[in-house]
Each structure stands twice: as structure tokens, then as C-alpha cells.
Amino acid sequence: MWHQGQERQQEARPQQAVEDDKAQLVSRLERELAAEQRRSEEYLDMLRRSQADFINYRRRVGQEQEEASLSAQIALLRRLLPVLDDLGRALSATPPELAHQPWVQGLHLVARRLASTLAELGIRQIGRQGEQFDPRLHEAVALDTQASAPEGTVLQIVRPGYMLGERIVRPAQVVVAGSQSTTSSPSAP
User: Fold this and answer.
1) How far is CA 178 from CA 46, 126, 139, 159, 172, in A?
2) What is the Cα 106 distance to its own chain's centre?
3) What is the number of structural domains in the chain?
4) How far is Cα 139 from Cα 154, in angstroms, rounded to an integer?
5) How far is CA 73 from CA 47, 94, 121, 126, in A?
6) In-domain check, residue 12
7) 163, 138 contact by CB (below 8 A)
8) Does the N-terminal or the C-terminal CB of the chain have fewer CB atoms within 10 Å?
9) Within a domain: residue 174?
10) At 143, which CATH number?
């Protein structure tokens, strides 16, 4: 009997040791799992940051390309505007007796085609007679105090201005109506 009790103790001991080993193994595996989960969260966070950085990079590059394209268009337009001005002056100086000549009609056709092409490209002419003076859009080259129009009204377009989208390429040069009081000196007391 003593022998059977001793065998049971020896059997219980290895079984207890196996249970302890299992508990230690489970504890170790849980720690390793937690460490791997932290590491995977770090990698996932790094991936998300990298994706956000890449999206921001693509957007920034797109904006820079758009800005470069717009700058190139504006530079080209600034070089072409004096030619367009010359064409407009030539057409407005055409004598009435030559207005029906085929070459004059051809010049008018070229001017209309050029204007429609510029409009298709998003380029529009600014500065109209009768509108209110706006220092963002107009450059006053003269002030007419004798005009019967309200003060600040654009009386004449000396040179048209142009916009590309919302950017001013060149302000319109205009003559503006002024009041008599703006040119007279204040009376002494």
C-alpha cells in the first residue's frame, strides 16, 4: 500500500509539472502574441503614414505641375498680348472705305478666331467701358474730371486687360471719371 501511495504521488507530480509547464507555455505565448500584435500595429501605423505621405506627395506634385503649366501659359500669353494689341489697333484704324476689302475682312476673321481660341483656353478680356473702376482689374492711366459719368466709372479702355482663370495676366489700362473736388485744392480757412 505504501507502494501504491508513492506511485500516486509520482503520477500526480508529473501531472502537476505538465500543468505548470502548460501554464508557463501559455503565459509565454500570450506575451509573445502581445509583442507581435504591438509590432504589427506599429507596422500598420507606419503603412498608414506612408500611404498618407504618398497621397500628399501626389497631390502636391499635381498642384506643382498645374502651377507650372499655368505659369507657362501666362508667360506665353504675355508675349502674345502686344501682337494682339497691334492687331486690334490696326483693325480700329482701318479707313471706312477699305472696310469691305477682302484682306480687311480676313484680318477681322483672324481677330475673331484668335478671340474664340483664347476664350476656349479660359483666357478672357477684362475692362469694359461703363463699369466701376476696380484696382485689381484696372490700371488708371488718366482721370477725366470733365466727364458727366459718376466718379470711378471707366470711361475709356486704353489697353484691354486679360485674365486666365482667376489670375490676372495684365490689368486693363483705363481712363476713369473723377470729380472736380479731387483736383481742386482745399480752401484755406
Assistant:
1) 65, 21, 14, 19, 18
2) 38
3) 1
4) 10
5) 39, 31, 10, 17
6) no
7) no
8) C
9) yes
10) 2.30.22.10
Q: Which domain holds residue 171?
A: 125-182
Name the nearest CA neighbour of 118 among 68, 65, 76: 76
Other CB atoms closer than 10 Å to residue 155's CB: what's the count? 18
User: How far is it, in rounded angstroms, from Cα 163 to Cα 166?
Assistant: 6
| Predicted model pTM | 0.65
In a domain, 83, yes or no: no
Residue 132 lies in a domain: yes
Name every residue whose Cβ is closer than 8 Å to that of residue 131 and which is 6 or more positions away in sequence. 153, 154
Give the separation between CA 27 and CA 33, rounded to whole angstroms. Answer: 10
